Amino acid sequence: ILPLQQLVIEYSLDVARIRKYMNLKT
Length: 26
Hints:
The protein has one helix spanning 3-25. The chain has 26 residues and is mainly alpha-helical. The protein has one domain (1-26). The radius of gyration is 11 Å and the shape is rod-shaped. It starts with a helix and ends with a helix. The model has no long low-confidence stretch (mean pLDDT 92).
């Protein structure tokens, strides 16, 4: 896995987690 791909994957996971958190908070 290229470092860039790893960053993209981690970023996607973080975004999904934040969206879930915001949905629960709303």
